[in-house]
């Protein structure tokens, strides 16, 4: 048996891996396995990873070969790598690209494979067979182009994700370009992300997901792709604030007539050459018996590019909309591919595979996002609050622990500790947030805050008239507050890694005075909240952040 006690990676036949944190090779190994494995849990000393079909197919789509995966495992494994695992990895990665979608004739496309027996298997799979038109030969079968998305969903469920080489509609042309000057130019990773998506304009270039940190300029990547494609573009995002932010960025950074940029929202219904809308509008209907009325208004336009902002938040209903738009180039932008609903397969098949990803700490070292320190501060729950927790129904205990009033003195201490910083206090529960806002004398933004009020408060925060702002989960994404350098997280969703990524991202834009950022999470000790905090911590760990746990009496003054 091969045995190397200095290697920190223990690889198991169930496709899980254990990585020792205290090893001097920890960071090197973490970065080596990140392209093809997902982190599962990250306690103090040993982190657990899992290799999945989606993680392997994402790796394959970005050019990582089975041989490269094998070499990394053999290089860093303490024990002999289980043979069955190496076989399984080669088999799973080998399925990627065995089936292609190609143009056929008129309104038809075709699934094509070099293996006639595989074609026979697919043809006799009910979920695929019902979408096919006819067999063309022993290695291919035709289907209606409108079913392109449904076919890809069915194929990935059989374990054979398709490479879509059927090409794309060009859409209506639009003369626009990205402004570049001494003050603004594409960063190296933005160039690489754009090129990884576009693939030189080939039939394979035009669908995929770019994963970059909040604050690193994902919007600019979207605009760089628009510059290449030069066609009417539909941008789907998370809310009105995001619409307005995209609009400002487009007008500022692109040679584009401002009249060509439209907003399609609850307030305004404009279809322009560049139209920005929200997921909420796309999923709105009068009742369950009604159709999604805005789908048709948007779908009838000849788009050349769809951009899905914060694609990890894509509502399930929008997958239906996207399945019918597979002839249009599709770019997903996100800080994390983790979905709480487990629909990573649908993102892969309908938006596209991950085409570019870079660890947050790499971009931090390049100076494009702020250096961040992450802390979890644990506090006890006492008195009436403790009684309320132990006597609550199990499903209510997380909220009781999250709203622990013992957190309030810690918040005030942290605010006092950072008198010269812009501070965001972020939470989930409105009663808790209103009490905190009153205690620290800061304004609050919630879902009920009108858009003009939000914009006014954001403006005052940017200009320095406000140094502390309390925000609910509406601020998890799409707010541009470049000078925010401290975030205090007081409550959140059950172990949401998505939310952790978004909230950390609120404070990562580079600071004009080279300050770093501090991200505090206050957690009630020995409760359900502490258990869920471990799950949230996974995101920070996989991105390479140290996560320091403190007792409340260890906060330095």
β-strand number: 25
- What is the CATH homology-level superfamily of the largest domain? P-loop containing nucleotide triphosphate hydrolases
* Backbone CA Rg: 25 Å
By DSSP (H or I, 4+ residues per run), the number of helices equals 22
Shape: globular
List unreliable stretches of 5+ residues. Answer: none
- Give the N-to-C terminal Cα separation: 54 Å
Mean of the pLDDT scores?
A: 88
Give a quick account of the main beta sheet: strands, pairing sense, barrel closure.
7 strands, parallel
Main-sheet strand order equals: 14-15-12-16-17-11-18
Overall tally of domains: 4
- Going by helix content, strand content and strand pairing, the class is alpha/beta
Please give the CATH architecture of the largest domain.
Answer: 3-Layer(aba) Sandwich
CATH level 1 name of the largest domain: Alpha Beta
Quick overview:
With 557 residues, the protein is α/β, with parallel strands linked by helices.
Task: Write structural notes for this entry.
With 557 residues, this protein is of the alpha/beta class. The chain has four domains: 9-95, no CATH class; 99-164, no CATH class; 177-358, P-loop containing nucleotide triphosphate hydrolases (Rossmann fold, 3-Layer(aba) Sandwich), CATH 3.40.50; 367-554, P-loop containing nucleotide triphosphate hydrolases (Rossmann fold). The protein is 38% helix and 21% strand. The chain is built from 22 helices and 25 strands. A seven-stranded parallel sheet has the order 14-15-12-16-17-11-18, with helices on both faces. The chain has a seven-stranded parallel sheet with strand order 21-22-20-23-24-19-25, sandwiched between helices. Helix 3 runs antiparallel to helix 4. The longest helix is centred in the C-terminal third of the chain and has 15 residues, at 528-542. The termini are far apart.
